[in-house]
């Protein structure tokens, strides 16, 4: 017998972040188009009335939360409306949350789940700017500030905005198959898929952008050519500075040393290639600037606590290792 559609209920409230709603909504709706009967989408506010998002967009819900059927997936977005949670919304979550098969939050939606006691004793994440608040106000929650999303049994929390799309794609892959999730990702022109343990900050975001154009050009060059000679001497030539002056200026303007910046770019490149291609570990090591598989293995063990072959196994169980 065919499986009934999984009902995905998105909770709406005033000053919600619109992309936290529409991003996952587009993913699940896209999957439903590709696999009819897989999902049934519903949006609901406390009283069933339209809500105004933090960007001024008006969203019209399908129904009131009190009239909503029990969903398979309850998705709570974030936004300014989570800063001072509506007590009635928190109570509704406290009453209905424990009964759902899958509980999901995007961005500061985790604050609402935590306020309802639904994250107690669990690992969770939220937008980096609110991780400290989540940990301070809800000490029963183990807050992980680094990952873009965290899965703990049937509860999944994401870091915010675009990471909600990453998490939704991961759920579609889990519910249906990788090909469906990949097709949805292609239609949305996004990567399939950033792993949950990828840091909220990429190397480019974690480091400041240099103010001087020669140093910004070096940052771009490093990102686009991880397999090049990225020694301080070589990069200094590109910046038209002496090695000593370059190293000092790069660190002062980006907040990290050239070596650490290069290490992070190479690690990100290697992870992405392992996740998204069938290239061998040796090919990945060479393309990412490690030179040898052993050098890449040491970098992965130091940064991630796992070897490249094991890392790939999470995404492609049958691809070359």
Automatic annotation (TrEMBL):
> Could you tell me which residue ranges the HTH araC/xylS-type domain spans?
216-314
| Key words of the record | Transcription, Transcription regulation
Q: Which InterPro entries match?
A: Class_I_gatase-like, DJ-1/PfpI, Homeodomain-like_sf, HTH_AraC, INH-QAR
The answer, when asked if NADP is one of the entry's keywords, is no
Q: Which CDD domains match?
A: GATase1_AraC_1
- What are the GO MF terms of this UniProt record? DNA-binding transcription factor activity; sequence-specific DNA binding
Q: Which Gene3D superfamilies match?
A: 3.40.50.880, Homeodomain-like (1.10.10.60)
Q: Where is the signal peptide?
A: none
Say if the entry is tagged with keyword DNA-binding: no
Name it: GlxA family transcriptional regulator
UniProt organism field: Streptomyces bauhiniae
């Amino acid at each position: 017998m065919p499986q009934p559609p999984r009902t995905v209920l998105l909770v709406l409230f005033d000053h919600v972040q619109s992309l936290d709603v529409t991003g996952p909504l587009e993913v699940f709706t896209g999957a439903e188009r590709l696999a009819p009967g897989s999902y049934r989408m519903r949006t609901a506010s406390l009283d069933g009335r339209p809500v105004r998002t933090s960007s001024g967009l008006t969203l019209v819900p399908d129904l009131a939360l009190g009239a909503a059927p029990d969903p398979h997936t309850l998705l709570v977005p974030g936004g300014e409306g989570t800063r001072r949670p509506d007590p009635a919304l928190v109570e509704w979550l406290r009453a209905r949350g424990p009964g759902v098969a899958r509980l999901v939050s995007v961005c500061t939606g985790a604050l609402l789940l935590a306020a309802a006691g639904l994250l107690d004793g669990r690992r969770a994440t939220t937008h980096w700017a609110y991780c400290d608040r989540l940990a301070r106000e809800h000490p029963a929650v183990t807050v992980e500030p680094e990952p873009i999303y965290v899965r703990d049994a049937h509860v999944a929390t994401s870091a915010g905005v675009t990471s909600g799309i990453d998490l939704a794609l991961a759920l579609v892959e889990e519910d249906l198959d990788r090909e469906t999730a990949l097709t949805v990702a292609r239609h949305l022109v996004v990567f399939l898929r950033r792993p949950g343990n990828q840091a909220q900050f990429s190397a480019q975001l974690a480091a400041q952008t240099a103010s001087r154009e020669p140093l910004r050009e070096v940052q771009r060059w490093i990102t686009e050519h991880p397999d090049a000679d990225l020694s301080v001497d070589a990069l200094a030539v590109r910046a038209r500075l002496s090695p000593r002056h370059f190293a000092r200026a790069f660190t002062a303007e980006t907040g990290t040393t050239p070596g650490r910046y290069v290490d992070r770019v190479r690690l990100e490149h290697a992870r992405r290639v392992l996740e998204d291609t069938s290239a061998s570990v040796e090919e990945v090591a060479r393309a990412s600037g490690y030179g040898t598989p052993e050098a890449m293995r040491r970098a992965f063990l130091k940064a991630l606590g796992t070897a490249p072959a094991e890392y790939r196994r999470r995404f492609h169980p049958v691809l070359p290792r």
